Amino acid sequence: MARTRFPADFGLSSRMLLTMFLLGLLYVVFVAVLVAVLGGQWLWLILLIAGGFLFFQYFFSDRIALYAMRGREVSPRQAPELHQMIDRLCALADMPKPKVAIADSDVPNAFATGRDQKHAVVCVTTGILRRLSEPELEAVLSHELSHVAHRDVAVMTLASFLGILAGFVVRAAIYGGAYGGFGRSNDNRDNTGFVILLVVLASAVVYALSFLLTRALSRYRELSADRAGAILIGRPSTLASALVKVSGEMARIPTRDLRAAEPLNAFFFAPALAPGFSLSSLFATHPPLQRRLDQLARLEAQLGRQA
């Protein structure tokens, strides 16, 4: 990890490492099954295609996210107060300053993206700029800069590779069976339907498990960013206030706008959940609001005792 003064949380770090280990183990088992069923020729082709998508996502995540949110990079002259906040936080954290962007959206949120500190972007919406006080906005920015310092976007991109691979395997199994049965001889083509079914079922199980593990990893990283950001500014209660305000204001946003923003939930400071969309609650990218507030309350008490 690059140089930074953001504090580490060894409890959360150990849980994140365990989750990454389970994802890696699942990947090894999945590849072994594919080699046994499909053979090496199809596997290498699938890995090459899935790897191409991963490469694109890894190196262009900042542009993709900004484009999706209609964000634009702003100069210190265009947004002096925002730049001053980020300058101050970067000096406090001893980290390079990322690019700064503003998205024209009434959804009150912020996000950080980019594969490392040199290619990072921190973006805030016009909605959050209107609703938060300066200390609250600074707390949110500290949370987002923690994501940058710990390279969370790169980690989550790599963690999502197994799900991408499983999706491609399903398509390859169907297309391969329809157009030649994976190159098998005529004597073995009677087994094509069974092979396709086996590969699709294995891929579905792997996708489901990798999805759950990746979402768990995302929730751990949000808790870690809350903790690191709150400790950096020394005011956990201010970050808690921003969380409560943003979550409350989210209910005032039209459902149409929330649904449009939902695909970027993994990037956001707080999830843009449309009311009644149960899958977003069940497989959440963020911890429950109360869990985040409880953690910040404990931090506030700890810092108060140390003062």
State the main characteristics.
mainly alpha, elongated, single chain, 4-stranded mixed beta sheet
What does this structure look like?
The protein is mainly alpha-helical and 307 residues long. The chain has one domain. 67% of the residues lie in helices and 6% in strands. The protein has 12 helices and 4 strands; from the N terminus they run ααβαβββααααααααα. The protein has a 4-stranded mixed beta sheet, sandwiched between helices. Strand 3 (110-113) and strand 4 (121-125) form a beta hairpin. The protein is elongated.
Number of domains: 1
Instruction: Provide the β-strand percentage band.
Output: 5-15%
On the 0 to 100 scale, the average pLDDT is 78
Physical arrangement of strands within the biggest beta sheet: 1-2-4-3
**Please, how many helices?**
12
Number of strands: 4
Derived from helix and strand composition plus strand pairing, the structural class reads mainly alpha
The largest sheet is:
4 strands, mixed
Fraction in helix: 55-70%
What radius of gyration results from the CA coordinates? 22 Å
Query: Which regions have little confidence, pLDDT < 50, spanning 5+ residues?
Result: 182-186, 274-278
N-to-C SSE string, H for helix and E for strand: HHEHEEEHHHHHHHHH
